[in-house]
Amino acid sequence: MPKKRLPYFSRTDTPPVMGLTPRDKQMLEAIYEYNGVVADYQLLRMFFSSERRMKERMTLLYQNRYVNRFDRKERNSHPYMAYFLDKEAISFLRQTYGDSLKFRLKGDRDSRVHHDVVVNDVRIAIRAALPTIGSSLIESTNSLEFDSNHDVITVPLPDGKSKRRAIIPDDFSHLVMPNGKHRRYFVEVELARKDQPRLLEEKFRPQLHYVRHSPEFATRYGEKAGGNWLYFCLDEGIALKMKQTAEKLGDAAKVFYFTTYEQAFHPGSFFIEPIWWRATIDTPIALVASVS
Q1: pLDDT of the residue at 3
Q2: Is residue 89 left, alpha or beta, with left meaning phi > 0 and alpha meaning psi from -120 to 50?
Q3: Is 0.90 surpassed by the pTM of this model?
């Protein structure tokens, strides 16, 4: 590490020479996979045991243009420092995985930075909880991938008409259980504090039709594939209101589950604790009742 402390919000003209460590490479890959932006506390959880060492290493990567990050004004507007890939990381990843990779740079999707960081929290929670059910992650898709490669379906409406809808989940995880069964979970992160009157028509109806009846879903995931939608809400009151709204679609609405961030992020609770409100069921249940 350099003897002198490096500038935190600006870059020096002659940064210290460095080589990428295996952990550095894993971090750059994680930023790419996690919607192109990762918060400092997320890096700390995944890769470091010391906040000081995390800050020192990320500053060195910043000075050598492997990562970019919030400026002082942006940092003061958020409860975390956010990191993005920069030109040296992009060069490394393209050399490793090919020139077809698409990247999110600092300044892209500015209005969605906080939303995407929260989506990352869900991604991390899912992966951290996999050992509690002995499951393996075999496929995942982030929202950046869905933005550029998503399905557009025809949704039948109650009045006999139909409407075209784009299906762009915030995240997706495909798990295989110890008994060989497959679980497909689509993630929706909700940061709104007020009731959304058009939620039924804009999200629930298209999402239900997508996983239950659309040929587009069968083409992408398989003829016999199924899927559930996991909604993450700011508080239980919002979760319950969403559950009640989804239930207007009848018994098939059981594909929807609702919980709060606090409950989902509690260690070990994600799959096996009764923290989920499932549409059509009156009491909270576990997401995975049994793996046998």
Answers
A1: 58
A2: alpha
A3: yes
Give the span between the Cα atoms of 230 and 184, in whole angstroms: 10
For the segment 223-254, what is each residue's pLDDT rounded down to a tens digit? Answer: 999 999 999 999 999 999 999 999 999 999 99
Decide if 210 contacts 203 (C-beta within 8 A). no
What span, in angstroms and rounded, lies between the C-alpha atoms of 90 and 102? 9
> b or e along 90-103 (b: 16 or more beta carbons within 10 Å of the residue's beta carbon)?
bebbeeeeeeeeeb
Q: What does R_g of the chain's alpha carbons equal in angstroms?
A: 21
Inter-CA distances, 22 with 17, 33, 114, Å: 17, 17, 28
DSSP string, the chain: --SSPPPSSS--SSPPP----HHHHHHHHHHHHTTTEEEHHHHHHHH-S-HHHHHHHHHHHHHTTSEEE--HHHHHTSSS-EEEE-HHHHHHHHHHH-TT---PPTTTTGGGHHHHHHHHHHHHHHHHHGGGTT-EEEEEEEHHHHHHS-EEEEEE-TTS-EEEEEE--SEEEEEE-TTS-EEEEEEEE----S--TTHIIIIIHHHHHHHHH-HHHHHHH-TT---EEEEEESSHHHHHHHHHHHGGG-GGGGGEEEEEHHHHTSTTHHHHSS-BEETT-SS-B-S-S---
What's the one-letter identity of residue 38?
V
